[in-house]
Task: structure prediction
Amino acid sequence: MKQPFKKSKEGKKADDDSLFGLLSSYKSYNTYVSLYRSDKDESILIFITDNPKKWALMTDVKYKEYRPLKRLELGVVRLSVKYIMPEHLIKCMGPMLGMKLPSNRVTIVNNIDNDGYFILETSVKYRDEIVQNIKKIINMTPQKKYEILEKCLADIG
Result:
């Protein structure tokens, strides 16, 4: 008769040392990304926050002309990044989020520390580059997410 396999304490300890075990302690950290487009102003904006309830800020008079772009329009499965806070993402990728856009064509509203949101607004002309960059951010590998966490936590400590 076969003996059932029992995990030893060492085996459980090794599971926690895996990449997903290390990331699991940051499970409550999430970044939500939303894209909005205004046909009237010919502009597009990226709205990054840690809580989707903050998307209600888009009902402000200033952003009344903007409509949200749907996941199908963007070609992505989800609009969130697990294990990373928006502050960490912006700190590591920079305020332009790794995009090479002309700085005179970009407006940045960085209220990440006070109100918990970040807005990058630019011309619709750069839509393809923005969508490509958002896909890159959303589909980040676990190794890249952990590198971002290590960088940010090393700066804090």
